[in-house]
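Priority: medium. Attachment 1 of 2:
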């Protein structure tokens, strides 16, 4: 008789350990958010939450306009996510299915831009925002993130593998325009991939710090990451206060993942196994 296969049990144990290690930083952030700086830096470190969270959360909202920062981040992240899902799908459709001069060269240029560090574009990007009088406005944060080279590449590859040329030809014979083919045929078929891309764009915009820190000046226009920075003094840092702000800033992402986590995984798997 063969010995029972214990590989699945071992796999589940390893996955459970990895899940706990992944969740622990979030848990420790909550622990620090319920204590003071002294408790956060003690050795051995504290592993049980305290009872100071509501007090520190109140200080967060009293110290900086944190609620306004949350609303600003929601507006920015939602606009960026929707923009990437739509505009990258449009560009990907053009590169995958339309025939025009220089198509392959333009797509190669788009892909090559992914090799350029984002920090190199900060100065020219700031100069453009200054010429447009967009400095210290939310559109200065939204507009540069509406399209990404990775998003165009993602959607181009997915559309090329999902949409048949015969389907487009049949739609053209029936009198459909290119715009109608995209919205009524192509986009519904690649909506799961576009949804995943939009979520990636949402999370990236939510967590972005460097560019909003440079271009936003007024406290009432801060995004949530800049508001967390404003909680810290120049010389010392109240870890409890800073971690309370960080935990409050993480809660919307946790709620979003709970609501759409299953669709996110399905969209990724759908994109991985097409073609």
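Attachment 2 of 2:
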């Amino acid at each position: 008789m063969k010995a029972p296969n214990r590989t699945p049990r071992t796999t589940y144990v390893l996955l459970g350990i990895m899940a706990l290690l992944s969740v622990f930083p979030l848990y420790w952030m909550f622990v620090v958010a319920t204590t003071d700086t002294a408790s956060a830096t003690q050795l051995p470190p504290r592993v049980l939450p305290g009872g100071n969270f509501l007090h520190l959360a109140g200080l967060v909202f009293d110290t900086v306009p944190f609620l306004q920062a949350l609303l600003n981040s929601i507006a920015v992240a939602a606009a960026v996510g929707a923009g990437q899902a739509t505009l990258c799908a449009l560009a990907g459709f053009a590169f995958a299915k339309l025939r025009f001069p220089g198509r392959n060269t333009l797509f190669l240029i788009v892909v090559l831009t992914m090799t350029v560090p984002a920090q190199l574009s900060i100065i020219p990007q700031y100069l453009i925002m200054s010429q447009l009088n967009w400095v210290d406005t939310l559109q200065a944060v939204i507009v540069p993130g509406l399209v990404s080279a990775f998003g165009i590449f993602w959607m181009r590859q997915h559309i090329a593998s999902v949409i048949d040329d015969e389907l487009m030809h049949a739609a053209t014979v029936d009198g459909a325009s290119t715009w109608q083919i995209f919205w009524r045929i192509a986009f519904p078929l690649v909506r799961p991939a576009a949804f995943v891309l939009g979520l990636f764009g949402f999370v990236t915009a939510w967590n972005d710090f460097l560019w909003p820190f440079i271009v936003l000046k007024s406290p009432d226009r801060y995004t949530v990451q800049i508001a967390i920075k404003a909680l810290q003094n120049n010389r010392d840092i109240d870890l409890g206060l800073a971690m309370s702000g960080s935990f409050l800033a993480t809660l919307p992402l946790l709620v979003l993942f709970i609501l759409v986590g299953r669709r996110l995984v399905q969209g990724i798997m759908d994109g991985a196994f097409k073609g």
